[in-house]
Each structure stands twice: as structure tokens, then as C-alpha cells.
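Aim 2 progress update. The chain analyzed this quarter is reproduced below.
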Amino acid sequence: MAGLQVPNSASGQGPGGRRRSWAELLAGRLKRQKCNPERAQKLKDSAVRLLRSHQDLTALLLEVEGPPCKKLSLSKLIDCDSSEIYANHSSSFIGSTLQDQASRLGVPVGVLSAGMVASSVGQVCTAAAETSHPVLLTVEQRKKLSSLLEFAQYLLAHSMFSRLSFCQELWKIQNSLLLEVVWHLHVQGIVSLEELLESHPDMHAVGAWLFRNLCCLCEQIEASCQHADVARAMLSDFVQMFVLRGFQKNSDLRRTVEPEKMPQVAVDVLQRMLIFALDALAAGVQEESSTHKTVRCWFGVFSGHMLGSVISTDSPKRFFSHTLTQILTHSPLLKASDAVQMQREWSFARTHPLLTALYRRLFVMLSPEELVGHLQEVLETQEVHWQRVLSLVSALVVCFPEAQQLLGDWVARLMAQAFESCQLDSMVTAFLVVRQAALEGPSAFQSYADWFKVHILHPPLVPSKYRSLLTDYISLAKTRLADLKVSIESMGLYEDLSSAGDITEPHSQALQDVEKAIMVFEHTGKIPVTVMEASIFRRPYYVSHFLPALLTPRVLPKVPDSRVAFIESLKRADKIPPSLYSTYCQACSAAEEKPGDAALGVRAEPSSAEEPLEQLTAALVELRSSMTDPSQSDVISAQVAVISERLRAALGHNEDDSSAEISKIQLSINAPRLEPREYTAVDLLLTSFCQNLMAASSVAPPERQGPWATLFMRTMCGCVLPAVLTRLCQLLHHQGPSLSAPHVLGLAALAVHLGESRSALPEVDVGPSATDAGLPVPALFDSLLTCRTRDSLLFCLKFCTAAISYSLCKFSSQSRDILHSCLSPGLIKKFQFLVFRLFSEARQPLSQEDAASLSWRPLYLPSADWQRAALSLWTHRTFRELLKEEDVHLTYQDWLHLELEIQPEADALSDTERQDFHQWAIYEHFLPKSSASGGCDGDLEAACTVLVNALMDFHHSSRSYDHSENSNLVFGGRTGNEDIISRLQEMVADLELQQDPSVPLGHTPSQGHFLFGIFCRRLQALTSGWNVAARLQRQRELLMYKRILLRLPSSVLCGSSFQAEQPITARCEQFFHLVNSEMRNFCSHGGALTQDITAHFFRGLLNACLRSRDPSLTVDFILAKCQTKCPLILTSALLWWPSLEPVLLCQWRRHCQSPLPRELQKLQEGRQFASDFLSPDAASPAPNPAWLSAAALHFAIQQVREENIRKQLTKLDCEREELLVFLFFFSLMGLLSSHLTSNSATDPSKALDVCAAVLECLEKRKISWLALFQLTESDRLGRLLLRVAPDQHTRLLPFTFYSLLSCFHDDAAIREEAFLHVAVDMYLRLVQLFVAGDTSTVSPPAGRSLELQGQGNPVELITKARLFLLQLIPRCPKKSFSHIAELLADRGDCDPEVSTALRSRQQAAPDADLYQEPHLF
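Predicted C-alpha cells:
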């Protein structure tokens, strides 16, 4: 910088060419001018303006300084590698020099130094950049800037630096100014960002500059640049400044001067960044693009660590609220009507991950109440972007459990506003919000149907002028509920709608409604509003259920009680029909006359039931006081007897009821219900048992507590046992995780004592499907304990630990048989499963030193350590000995069944921990374990077999709650199976590596792959037949087989290589057999397998053939064999060839440079022929084999529009006869598929037109086609076509034959000798199908308009077929009747009239045909 020269125009030259200095020039002017103060001031201003212009200040200083100062250079000052600064040029020396120069120039030293430093900053920024849009300094630049800023700080400290001038000079180099320099100036106190922004003349320009630089900064942060830590610190500081200054309170009285530009610039920059991000998401930003990285980084600033210290202020909350408003209102493109159609695509799972991440970060700062309130305010005041509004609703209900109630209240207010003020917008908003929230499932929000129920059961109060609007709404809502197949007529008035899936029986619910209505009436003295509304809006339920429950005859009390007063109030309000009230009064009078009979059918009034319950409570309290008093132990039996008596009185049971024997208890695990009186009494018993156990355990261990527990348990047997078990089902199965430790201990001990008396207790049927088989009571507890989520796993562990520990302590001195009777093997197995799963230390082998003593005391303490208790039980010697019993071994199959129930999204283990556990359980525990102990004897194939069977069993069991046919990757709808499937993949891969290289992998030559053996055995065990249940069961089984095969290597289908001595491997043979015998009937549509299994087979085929000596020859050989062994494989390849060809071609060319094998080329040629045939140009001849070309043409025809089909098929006149016959067969199959498959792509009318067109061509060319309806395995045509078509299709060929009745030519019917035989055979088979009910499958489905040449249903079709035969028989020649007797031998009784006509014509005179009158018309 010191070496630069000032241009000649600035320095000037004398006449003699000598260059004069700047001082000489100024001295000359001073001599010529008089001293004038005003002119001196002007001169100073001019000098300042000159310095602020684009001049080289260093050169100017050199001119002023003269030759002795040529070594003074600011560039050396900022050069950190030079030691010259420390030796000769200290900051004080340079500052002194600047003061001297400023004095000589007559300008402020601050202005001069500011310009000089700004110029140096510009030189630092203009150094070579690493990127096209740099925002960060290089290492060298950062070192130079550091030295420069040290000098600037010295100038600031000595009042030799003008911040304002420096800011103005910096903006002159704005285009080269780097954002990191601005940040360093801010953090090191040279000039703050606020000062710098305030000094810029154009607020819009500075906002745009900051926006561009922040985008570049975000992109470099996400690109993991070298200085990412600096970049993140920069972004954090800038965001904190913008948030703090842009969203501070306006009324800040501490500041005397409020800057105007900074808040506006801050808000502008933040808004620019948000809009940029929202627009990018709306445009569909590509993953990992530069824009995607920028958006991802910017959304990260909404996290707490980026906001840093400002998080404690109010500014972030205002910023987040402002951001939320911008999200909801930016670019409002869609209308509400559009949102209704599209909102299904805006659920939480389908929303862009970046946007949902932003929502979650906003939720951290804003409470659910604030979010819902803000959403409501925005919707009421502004136009909104419906997609982002509704996606926010989804995020709310998913992330906040309390959001369901908040949204429900808001929607209720919207509906009230809609009816009160006739505001359609409020109703539209309510419907959109509820529909969106309901999309997230019942765990997040009530279903859409349940929400409708709320408004019908509890309609809002509206002005009378809008009453008609409300009535219309309720009518429409009822219609909508009917569409949703939801009935509200049987729902109660006070029913909990959050559990609408388990609807109470109307009679039971009505009793509860009456009790609650009377309770409300007692407190208010008025008829409850709910009852009044039900009498108007829910008249059927009110009259049929509520009033009969209320008006149950009884002995009326002398002093009218609440029930009497409530009934009288309803009567005065005309809410009880007079006839019903009169009947009630008469029945009550009769009850007074016969009080003894009243108990038989009259429900006791609440006041009469309270006294026995109070007496029962008192007896239970007295028993509990005896638990801790040893002197009272001898009276416990008497007290238990008192409890038994008072329990019987509280429940209204007499002696006969108590002595009645119960043979079997019916229990619904999913929906256990109790009457209110039973509920109260049983709860008293169970609570007392738990309290008594805790009290007794405080003074003695279980083995020294005496017989109180057994005696108490016996009071629960008899008639009260069903209620006790029902309540236990509610507590353990539905509320288990919420139970406290005393409840867990008490109920576990009760389960043990119930098991102790298992021989005296009846069996339990769980669910409506259990008819004969029942569970013993101990096994019932195993069914009630589920292991699916983290909470249920921990609860099950607690209960099992408590039950086993209590039984071991209680019966420690008794035989092991007692333990077996008290505890079910399933409960002990679950405990083993849980300990292995939750505690990794339990997976290590135990030594003798590890045996621990068992203590009951720590369990009942308030601070019970369940993990310690479980591990203590696990190492207890008696428990280890118990595990030696064969029936309590946790087998590999048991482990799989339990593990399959786990829901990974709510698992106690992380994904990694779960994978480690699976690896240990399979490979380290069960695989090497002996089969006698529940293991696999080291046999990996056996382990795979058990796993596959467990998967299949689980898929078909009620535990797998979704059987989605379209879900190819999720078994039974449970993502938990994915982990088990991964283990199966690993095990199959291990098996592949373990095989002898000389033998095809995974099988022996004689047996094939073990998986096909599993499938075969399972299929043989299934019921066979054509009934719907058997077919559906078989189809579901096969779909599971297919899904398993698709998840395993393709070599499972055909082997990993083909040997010269055995070209067709055993695997291929097995797969072909599976396709021909099963998949053809249940996993194919229209003569082809599904695309996934087809592609899987061909990938495996090429993989195996490419390992052979001659891959092309091997492929040709295998596919040629497919023509006879499994032709369905080839037709499937034809159907899916457009998507199959690129994959196979790439796979082939990766290993071979030769063209595709000839047999694959035939598939190409077949598809090409079909494409050419349907094109306007002349078609090429059909390639061989003809049946493949016909199949390709059939699939192509299905894609042609119906109006063009007739024109296109005229080209068939030029094709070979063989092709036409095969095409006619495939067209017949297509006609049947259009009827049998509800989602068929081909309309039945189009399919019929295709058949008619092909038949017309056949008739025109006099080509025989009757053989298609007489196919057998003995002829070549039958062997081929019967292996392509499903059996159901071939059975229904009579339907297609007579569907084409109008297309038959009279001449052909008489000319073809076999026509009559085929027509009669088809007719008799059609009648048999109709009698068997099989023709219903091809009847037009409901709601589907279908006209098949007049055939509206099978009955009409049979009628027309019969008439056709009766008219045809007299016209047929004698030779046509040669084999008719064989047809009528066993089917003649199907239609006696047709049989008689046939026999009569057959027995006619031989020459009758010669004299028969010709049929002219």
C-alpha cells in the first residue's frame, strides 16, 4: 500500500518536470489566498469529502509525509507474519502519525483513520475466495483481519476512530464485504450490527443483502464446511440480534433514542428467510439440493440452542407467534372446497418432514392453548393457506395429547357460532378441522363418526329462527352416520364418547342414564337438559329404553324420594305418555300388595342399596384392623363370614343364588362390563384385599400370615366370581400400567390364591368365539397380561414378579405341585421373556454364587425397586429349580409369539437394543439350546422353520389386528414383524453360505428348499373346497407365503445356479408346483401372477443362469420348459414386460455382452407384435408360439379404449387360425375376470364385445372353437390352457358360453357335429353351478350397471339357454346325438324337459332327417 503512487492529476508537475508534493501545492495556494475563517471551514469540509471519495489514502499519506515515511505501511500492520510491526511500527506510533497527518490535512483524525481502516477491510475481503458467493473468510484473511481489528480497537480506545464514518465507508464496498467481517466487527465491539444497519441509506437494499448472505451461510453450514463452527456462531448471533431487536416491546422507556431502521430490517430479513423456505417447500424442493440444505439449516434456528441467551426474554415468543402467522397466511391459494378434497394428503405422516420439524420447534415455545388460540385468531381475521393450516392441526393432535380437548372445545364454539349467527364459514372451518384431526387416528383424536354423534346427542342451543337450520343439520348428520354404518339409536344419554368402540347394551346403559339423571335432578331440582333433548331429538331411545328403565315397578316409599319427584316432573312436562304412566302406577300398587314378589323382578332403589354397602364397608374395615393385631387372628374366620353375608345382601343374592353352581363363565376381554352395584361391591372387595395384604405384610412375611387370604378369596367365589373376574379384566388388561404398587401386589397375590383353588373354579370362555374350550383361572391371567408397549411390558414384569415371588414365599415349605397349580406356565414364561428382554445382565449364564435369597418385604415398601426384585427372583435357587420343569421352559416358539406382539414404536427398547436382543436370543440362546429345553439343537434350518410358522400363525391370529392385502411389506399390519423378518433374512442368508458348493444352495437335490415344505404342510392342513370361507382362508395363507418369498433372496425360488446334470432344480420344480396348484387359483388375476412375484422369479432365474457355463442356453432351456411345466410364468412376464424388461436387460448386460437369450426375445417379440397389431400401421405376422402372441395381444387389447376395439379387431381376419383360438380363450378368461374382480380394469361390456368380435372372426373363417369348452389334461391344448386359467374360471366357462348366445350363427350350430354336445354339456353344467350357488360370483354387483346382451342375472341366462336348446334340438342332424346319452346318464335330472327332448330326438327314425321339413325362416 505504501508503494502506490498518487496519480499526476493529484500531485501536479512543475514546468521543469519536477514533481511537487501535496504540501507544496497547498502552500502555494495559501500564499495566494488571504486568511479567512469561513474559507478555512469550507476547506476542511472539502478535505473530508476528498478523503471519503475513492482515493488511495496510503498514497496520499505518503505525499504528505515525504520520503522519510515511505516505510510506514498499514498492510504491514495487518500482516501477522511480519515482525517489523513490533520492532519499528507500534500502534501508538501509527496513531501518532495519523494525528500528525490529520493535523496537516486539517481533517478530524477519526474520519481519516475510519477511511483508512475501511479501505484495509476492503482489501482483506477482496482476496481470493474459495466459493462463488463467499460469506466466510479464509484462514489467511481471518489472521489479517484480526490484526487490523486490534489496531481499530486501539484507535477506538484513544478516541481516534469515527464509527459513523467507518460504517459509511464500509457500505461503499458492500458488494465485496463479507458477512463474517460484519460479524467480527460486531462481536469485537468495533461497530455493532445495529449501528452498521442504521447507517445504510436504503433499508430494502440492506435487507436483500443480508438475505442473500444468510442463505449462503446456511448452505455452507449444511455442506459441512471447514469453518462450520464459526458459521454456526455467526448464524446464532445474527438470529439472536434480529429476534431481540425485531420483536422487542415498543414501550421501552429506558432508551432515549429508539432506532427506526433496525427493527424493520430485522423483521424484513427474518420474513424473507421464512418466505423463501415456504416457497421452496411448496415448489417441491429436491432432497439434498442447495435449497433443501438452506431451508433445513434455517429451520434449525428455531431451536433453543440457536437462540441462546435471548430465550429468556419475551422476544422469541413474539417471533414464534409471528412466524406461525406467516406460515398460516403466506400465499393463500386454495379455497375451503379444495381443502375438503385434498386434506387427506396433508396428514402428519404425509407432510414434508422439514415443515413438521418446524412445527415441533414452534411447539416448544408456544403452549397448546396459545397455539389453538393463535390458530383461531388467524382463521377469523385473515386469508389462510389451508394446506399449512390443516397440517398444523395434524401436528397439534399428534404432538400434544391435550390438543384433542382444546380442538374439541374450539370446534364446539365454531358450531355454536354457526347455528347462533348462521355463519357458514364457522361450520366449514369446524368440519375441516375435525376431519383433519380425525385423520390421525383414534389415539390422537376421536373418529369422524364419533364427532357426528356428539352433535346429534348434544345439539347446541340456537335461537328459534335458526331451529329449522339445526333440524336440517341433524337430519343430514344422521344420514352421514348411516353412510358411515354407525347407529346412534342405542347410545346412552351420558355415554362416554371417547370409548365409542365398546358400546354398552341399551338396557344396561339406560339404567346408568336413569341413575345419573336422578342425581342431576337431586342437585338442581330441574329436569336435566340432556333428558329434555333426548325426548325431542332421540325419541326412539327415550321411549324404548330410558322410560322403561325409569318406570320399573317397585314399592313406593311413604316419603317421596328423588325418583318419585323426577317422574312427577316429567309427567307434568308431558314427557311421559299417559298410558305408560298409568301402567307404571298400577304395577307399583300391585307390588305394595305383594311385597314378597317384588324382589323377584323389581330393581331395588338406591337408598335401599346404600345400607348393605355401608355395612359391607364397615365389615371390611374391621377385618383390616385385625390384620396388624396378632391377638385378633382367631376371629378372622368369623369376620370373613360376616363379610360374605353382607356381600350377599349388598348384591341382592339369596341363599339359592349363592349355592347355584356355575359351569362356565363367559367373559369378554375386549369389552368387560359390570352393573353399577356389582362394580361398587367388587371394588370394595379388591381394595380391601390389597389393603389387608399390605397391612399383614408389614408385620409378617406371606408364609406366616395365616389363612386370611384363602378365606377372603373364597368369599369371591360362587355367584360373585364372574363379576370379580370381569373387574380383574378391566384392571389388568385395560388399566394395568396405571395401577399403583399396592394394587399390583394385592391383585398378584389374589391371582395366586385363585390358582390355588383352580380345581374348584369353573373354566372361563374369553370372547364370543370360544364355544367349548375354556381356560382355567390361572391361564386367564396369562391372557389378561399383554406385552406390546413399554408401559404394558413394565406392568407385566411387576405383576409376574409379584405373583411368582408371593407364591414362592407363601408355599415355600409345600410341594412343587402347589406352585404349578397357583401359577400358569404362561405367566412364568412371560416373566422369563421380560427378564431376558429388559435386563441384559440376565442373559449371562448364572453361577452357583449368583443364587440369591428371596425377600417379600422390599416389594410392599413405597419405594419398591422392581428391577432389583425381578433380578433377585431370577437368581433365586427355588425359581431356578422350577425352571427345570419342562412345561415352564420358554421355548423358541414361545419367544417368537411374544416378540411378535411388541409394537416397536412404543417399545421399551430402542431399535438398536431390540436388534441386539434378537441376535442374542436367536443365535446365542435358542439356536444352540437343545430341543428338549425349547431350542433348535444348533439347526439353523429348524430355527427358520419355527420362525416362519410363528409368523404365519401370528398373521392369522386375532392378535394381528390388520390383514391388509395391499401391504406387501407389513405382515398383519404390525411393523413389529419387520424386525423378525429381518432376522429371517439373515438366517436364510446364513443357510445359503453353509451349503456344500457342489449342491445347489438351500436344498438337497431330492427335497428342495425347506420353505416350500412348510408351505405344503400348512396347505394340506387347511380345509379344501369352493366355499367362500375355505377360499378366503387359503388365499390369505398364500398371500403370506408370497410376502415371505418376496422378502427372501430370489434364489429361494429357483436356486443359485443350474447344473448340467440337473437343469431344472428342485426349487424350480417346487415353485412351479406352487404356482400351478395354488397361486394360479388365489394369487393371479386374468391369467397372470402379480408383478412382484413375477419380477422376483425372473431376477432369480437370471442370477442363477449367469453362474452357469452357458447362461443364454440355460435361460432358453428353463423358459422352454416353462411352456409345458408352468406357462403362467410366461403369461405373467408378458403382462408385466414393460417394467420387467429394463431390469432384466440391465442385469443381463452387466454380466454378458451378448443379446438377451432367445426365449426372452420371444417375450419381446410377442409384446412388439401386440403393439404393432393395435397401431394404425400394418401389423407384422405373429411370432411363435401362437399362444404367447395371443396372450400378449389379449393384454394389449385390455388397454385399448372401448370405442376403438371393434375397429382394431378387424385385423384378425389375417391372422393364423391357431392364434385366433388362443385369443378367444384368453378373451373368455378376461370376460370372467371382469365379473369376478370388483376392481377389474376391463368393463364387462367391453370384455363381451371383444369375445364377440373374436368369435365373429372365427365363425367367418369357419374355424372350430368348441374344443375350448371341452379342455382336459389329456390333450395338448388342455394341458397348456388349464395351467394358465384359474380353476374357478374354467368351472364358469358355461357362463361365458351362453353369454355369447346371440353371437352364434345358426349354420354353425347345425354344421358342427359337436356343437349340440357342447351346448348341452354347458347347459347342464350351468344349471349345476346355479344350484350350487356359484353363479352368484358372476352376477352384476350392487350399484354397477351391467347389460350383457339382455342377460341381467343367471336365472335369465339359464332361461334363454334352455329356450335355445329346445329350439336347436329338432334342427340338429342325427349324428349330433351320438354321445348325448353319456351326458344325460348322471345329469339328466337337471332339466327333465330338455332331457326328454334330447332322448326323443335321439330315438327318432334313422331317416327322419330326410323327410323333415326344412327350416326356412
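Strands lie at 664-667, 763-766, 1003-1004, 1008-1009. The CA atoms of residues 493 and 1146 lie 67 Å apart. These observations will guide the mutagenesis experiments scheduled for the next reporting period.
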